[in-house]
Amino acid sequence: MADLNARIKPKKSSTTGEVPQAADLEVAEIAVNTADGKLFVKHTDDSIKEISGGTDITTESIDALSDVDTSTTAPTDGQVLTWVDANSKWEPADAGGGGSLPSVSGWTIDSNATSATSQVLNAPTHSAGDLLVACIMSRDSGGGLTPPSGFTLHGAYLSSIVFSGGIQTISVFTKTATGSEPSTYTWTQASSSRICGFIAALGGNAVISTVTQNYGNATTATINTVANRLNLTAATWVYALASSEAYSQSGAGVTEITDSPASDARISGGYTTQAGTVTSTHGSTTVDGSPNHGMINIQLEVATSINDSSDVDTVTTPPTDGQVLTWVNANSRWEPAGLDGTTVRAVLGIGEYADDAAAGTGGVASGAMYYNTTSSDYRLKT
Prior knowledge:
3 domains, 5-stranded antiparallel sheet
């Protein structure tokens, strides 16, 4: 049984690049190069065939791949890798969030903060269904802002910026664009005070995820941006620019929203899909109050729930089985409601009248249906 301990040793070489010759081997005999990790065998035609190897077995992080980035924004528990067109990378994102980001259809800006009781902004290029996001700079001395029809206040930010004892803020308003928007929008305030702003139109079923703010002083302020979101940034400062000086927003992938006025500018905008830091700069050193310069970042994502839509509210009153979404003029929202007779008639446009005569007065044509409130039934107008 001693043969059980015998070892088979193929011919070998420890010299890098050395290959056996036909004369070195018998047919089917093998040889190994330990330096290269390669195995060879002699074929019946006297040729030497390489039958294995050469590649070291190593382990690499997925982030080593050229089209994967898990370093800029580290993944958190439960996230997935999502393709981001803007960066041409697979990046961590919440599961179910989709692989796309909102897009910017267009924007308009008037950064010249004159003292007035109103601010008119041109409608940006947009499509029906786009989310219109307006950033309006104003001061508390104006007595509060009244938005144009259809716009609702999302929030007011940077309320710690002071000027001669007053407060200067950026208010964010939103509206879902219809197929027949006006050419201009007007914000009003009770008293004449400095006011300016911009509007961005965002496609791709955009919704606001969150809004962050940060303060600076003098000529600069900064705000952090995040990956897997469209970051819409806005900045404001206390003092206007001196003649011929400029203002700007800069950072990774930033597209500016600017009209570059020579003086009186008090708002700037920009947008990016990249994580990093955006810097707002203006030319005049500000000495009044502290802080006197600030930025906000409106983070936008693609809606994944019907309640993400700006004109739907299923949270205040959660829906119950069998309810439908009904438009409520008072709240400018679609809200859950039961399919009772009144709701059905409102949806179908069937009027309610006490009798035939009242239906006629109400414009119901002969032969058309109406609901008779006296007899509690449906009738055809005679």
